[in-house]
Amino acid sequence: MISEADGPAARSRGIVVVGNGMAGSRLVSEIRARDPRVPLTVFGAEPRQPYNRVLLSNVLAGVTGPDQIGLVDPAWYEASGVDARLGVEVVGIDRRARVVHGSDGSAVPYGTLVMATGSSSLVPPIPGTEDGLPGGAVTFRTLDDCSAIIDAAAGARRAVVIGGGLLGIEAARGLVGRGLEVTVVHLAGHLMERQLDPGAGKVLARTLSRLGIRARVEVNVTALRVVREASGPRVTGVELAAPGGGGDGPEALDADLVVLACGVRPEVGMARAAGLEVDRGIVVDEMLRSVSDPSVRAIGECSQYGGTVYGLVAPAWEQATVLADLLTGADARARFTGARQITRLKAASVDLVAMGETHHGDDDPGVEVIQFADASRGTYKKVTIREDRVIGAILLGETSTAGTLTQLYDRAAPLPADRLSLFFPGIGGAQPADSPVRMPDAATVCQCNNVTKGQIRACWEKGARTADEVAARTRASTGCGGCRDALEGIVAWLGEQDSVPAG
Question: pTM score, two decimals?
Answer without folding.
Answer: 0.87
